Recover the amino acids of this structure.
């Protein structure tokens, strides 16, 4: 899976906000709000990546957290992105 | 011709004399300029594609100019904000709402209530620049069909979202809850680096402002209720 559009990320009022840029702003004109973990996964999705690869990268980033919790967090966030139709 | 808009000296090259007249209140006395903007027929053609309705080239030039300027603003710590901004004795209050909700109507009730104590800086598209961390709103020539604008600036202290309701009351909003709503009112520039900058400027804008939701009927009492809570409430605290 991969993001359908080009996005940039920055923090506003403590939240990570993703905005489509250039010509992609016409295709996706909303804003995606996410927390720090979401922003980490979101950045990985700039390149083609599988669910298993995402979880592996999360295991490295969040070494103290068990795999099941990370999988659940990834599933929930990917679901949010699917609903927004950006992956 | 060089114009001074939002404290920036801008050399603007227009196609039509009507656009020069549109900008007449913003002529600069400077010979130097910070940035140059040129509108050409391709820009007008692009605006025609974006617009619903049959607009003349002269009008579309003013829109194209606004867009070109808005794309440059992040480089000068600024952005275009779709809202109305008033100055109440030097305190800036911004009213934002989705189109058609009644921000102009509510703004005019504040004017009716406060008379000379209130100046409408801009009724539709002020520019906000973050100067030493403070959001400053500037009047612009782009001020909506009611033509409400003064070439002046004011530091913004309050951001108010207008919501139509069955009674008049005001609630304080958490900044996190205001993020999406304020981003909907801010022009997002075309280049990626300018979008990143605009988000950082939005963060500074929210950080230095108090955020409110004004629930209102279209009546004078709505302005009285809002003024008491937002402005007089502040006076009582200090």
């Amino acid at each position: 899976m991969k993001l359908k559009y080009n996005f940039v990320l920055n923090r506003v009022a403590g939240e990570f906000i993703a905005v489509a840029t250039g010509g992609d702003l016409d295709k996706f004109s909303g804003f995606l709000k996410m927390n720090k973990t979401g922003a980490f996964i979101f950045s990985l999705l700039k390149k083609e990546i599988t669910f298993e690869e995402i979880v592996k990268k999360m295991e490295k980033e969040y070494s103290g957290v068990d795999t099941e919790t990370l999988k659940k967090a990834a599933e929930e966030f990917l679901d949010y992105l699917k609903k927004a139709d950006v992956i | 011709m060089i114009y001074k808009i939002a404290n920036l000296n801008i050399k603007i090259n227009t196609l039509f004399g009507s656009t020069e007249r549109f900008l007449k209140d913003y002529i600069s006395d400077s010979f130097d300029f910070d940035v140059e903007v040129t509108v050409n027929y391709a820009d007008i053609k692009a605006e025609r594609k974006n617009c619903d309705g049959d607009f003349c080239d002269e009008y579309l030039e003013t829109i194209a100019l606004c867009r070109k300027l808005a794309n440059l603003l992040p480089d000068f710590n600024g952005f275009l904000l779709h809202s109305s901004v008033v100055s109440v004795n030097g305190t800036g209050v911004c009213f934002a709402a989705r189109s058609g909700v009644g921000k102009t109507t509510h703004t005019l009730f504040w004017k009716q209530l406060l008379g000379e104590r209130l100046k409408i800086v801009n009724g539709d598209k002020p520019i906000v620049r973050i100067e030493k961390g403070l959001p400053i709103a500037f009047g612009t020539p782009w001020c909506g069909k009611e033509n409400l604008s003064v070439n002046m600036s004011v530091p913004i202290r309050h951001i108010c979202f207008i919501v139509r309701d069955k009674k008049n009351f005001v609630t304080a909003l958490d900044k996190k809850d205001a993020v999406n709503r304020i981003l909907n009112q801010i022009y997002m520039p075309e280049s990626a680096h300018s979008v990143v900058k605009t988000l950082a400027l939005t963060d500074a804008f929210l950080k230095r402002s108090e955020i409110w939701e004004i629930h209102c009927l279209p009546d004078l009492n709505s302005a009285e209720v809002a003024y008491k809570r937002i402005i007089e409430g502040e006076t009582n605290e200090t």
Q: What stands out?
A: The mean pLDDT of chain B is 93.
